[in-house]
């Protein structure tokens, strides 16, 4: 799991950093709903606070990692913009807003911190990027002529399709650079 702040600084939880996710409500959710005159009108997941417990197990050379983690998460809180928590290709917009060391340096290299994470996104998202090539960029496997032209003919058109493999509708952004036609 990785946290990335608005400066694009990242902190990766796990064995290498010594900071581990111990116990959390990170994946908890509750659907909110509206009922009017006996008819269900909407069902949504509301953003909100999640309790997260972190376990810090540090060797002598890792002791500075907790300060690095604090600097990365504090930047977002101070400027009031959420960072991104990423796990297995899925991400969510969030910000650490409270911290309470429980067993602060209970033993050498051991600390537990209870933190509050403000989750601003409704859902964990997986962002994928697809690139569509213009028909002139597909190669020269089409018609060949004995004379050279300033362009190449292709055997296929530049049209393609994109399939949403999710069970639900997904937001998307379509950007086209240069002249476009239907």
Give descriptors for this structure.
182 residues; mainly beta; 7-stranded antiparallel β-sheet; two-stranded antiparallel sheet; 1 helix
Can you describe this structure in just a few lines?
With 182 residues, this protein is mostly beta strands. 8% of the residues lie in helices and 34% in strands.
Q: Topology of this structure?
A:
Layout (H helix, E strand, L loop, with lengths): L1 E3 L5 E3 L6 E6 L6 E6 L2 E7 L2 E10 L7 H15 L3 E5 L2 E12 L8 E10 L63
Antiparallel strand pairs: 1-2, 1-7, 3-6, 4-5, 6-9, 7-8, 8-9
Number of helices: 1
Q: Kindly state the mean pLDDT as a whole number? A: 80
H/E element string?
Answer: EEEEEEHEEE
Instruction: Indicate the proportion of strand residues.
Output: 25-35%
Radius of gyration: 25 Å
Which runs of at least 5 residues are low in confidence (pLDDT < 50)?
none
* Termini separation: 42 Å
Classification by helices and strands = mainly beta
Strands across the major sheet, in which order? 2-1-7-8-9-6-3
Largest sheet: 7 strands, antiparallel
Number of strands: 9
Which descriptor suits the 3D outline?
flat
Task: Explain what this protein looks like in three dimensions.
Helices cover 8% and strands 34% of the residues. The protein has 182 residues and is mainly beta.
């Amino acid at each position: 799991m990785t946290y990335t702040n608005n400066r694009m600084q990242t902190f990766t939880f796990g064995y290498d950093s010594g900071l581990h996710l111990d116990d959390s409500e990170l994946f908890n959710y509750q659907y909110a709903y509206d009922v009017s005159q006996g008819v269900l009108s909407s069902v949504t997941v509301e953003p909100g606070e999640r309790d997260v417990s972190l376990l810090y197990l540090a060797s002598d050379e890792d002791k500075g990692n907790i300060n690095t983690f604090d600097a990365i998460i504090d930047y977002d809180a101070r400027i009031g913009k959420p960072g991104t928590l990423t796990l297995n290709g899925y991400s969510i917009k969030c910000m650490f807003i409270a911290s309470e060391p429980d067993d602060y340096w209970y033993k050498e290299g051991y600390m537990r911190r209870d933190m509050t994470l403000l989750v601003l996104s409704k859902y964990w998202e997986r962002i994928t990027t697809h690139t569509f090539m213009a028909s002139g960029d597909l190669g020269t496997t089409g018609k060949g002529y004995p004379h050279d032209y300033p362009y190449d003919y292709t055997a296929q058109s530049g049209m393609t399709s994109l399939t949403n493999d999710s069970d639900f509708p997904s937001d998307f952004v379509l950007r086209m650079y240069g002249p476009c036609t239907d």
